[in-house]
Amino acid sequence: MNYNINSNARILIVGDIMLDHYIYGNCNRISPEAPVPVVEITRESYTLGGAGNVLENLNALNCHADIIAVVGRDDNAAIVAGKLADCGSRADALIYDAARCTTVKTRVLSSNHQMIRLDRECADAVRDDVADQISALLKQHAGEIDILILSDYNKGLLTPTVLAEVVAICKAAGVKTIVDPKGLDFSKYQGASIIKPNRKEASLATGIAIHDQDSLERACIKIKETTGCEAVVVTMSEDGIAIYENEQLSIIPTKALGVVDVTGAGDTVIASIAIALASGYSLTEACDFANHAAAIVVSKVGSATATLAEINQMFQA
């Protein structure tokens, strides 16, 4: 089948935005100062990461999306703002906080080999005044959106207070919320529509070792009881995607033919589910669509994206 995606669907992301900074170079010698490799830099690049990668995936699917996120008041924030402008996202939904730094992950690579990663971040919970700005922005735009994605990377934005306020605003506006969770306590996502952990996250959050269909179902039931959500979607890498909805568990087998890099695959899945649901497809159909999108992404290097043309070509193969 061919999926017909509604390019006019309105999706908003609230979550931890990051900047992925790549430094490429050649490494041919060891430093005389210490037993460490010397990398001669040839080029650098920046891409949006974290919740920003969800945005990039939606753009690749021809869906315009906006994001509410917090950055520092620094040079890296200006790069993030420029990247969001390139995506056509609203500039007024980026909240600047001088007390924080913009989250940046710097990776040094030589001959396609990652030698080191350097992280710059502040994972403290956002202040009350920042939380109030998030709520005000969401209230302003809630009536304009079809789906809201909560992209939690545990960097301090999605506190229990912020989550409760966001979910309440969305419920009042009739907006479905989909969560990509982090941490052990899923109760903070109480009231969200769909919870989408991976298998490891689901196991850690429930205390249930997932090793077969029975333990998987018990974990899904516990997540549903903890959060009061409508459905649970568990991504399971080579074992596909599990859906627990209407007290029934179903599993969609993986479509991946060759795995090169799983970086960002979770972002692809949640973005694909959101746009498919916003286009009128059922959750099962949306997960099948996401399964194909993820198969394309894991066959590429880095935080890649999948286009609608690539996905539909997979369905025809």
Automatic annotation (TrEMBL):
InterPro entries: PfkB_dom (IPR011611), RfaE_dom_I (IPR011913), Ribokinase-like (IPR029056). GO terms for cellular component: cytosol. Keywords: Kinase, Transferase. Pfam families: PfkB. Residues 10-305 form the Carbohydrate kinase PfkB domain. GO terms for molecular function: heptose 7-phosphate kinase activity; heptose-1-phosphate adenylyltransferase activity; phosphotransferase activity, alcohol group as acceptor. Gene3D superfamilies: 3.40.1190.20. The keyword Translocase does not apply. It comes from the Bacteria. NCBIfam families: rfaE_dom_I. This is D-glycero-beta-D-manno-heptose-7-phosphate kinase. The gene is rfaE1.
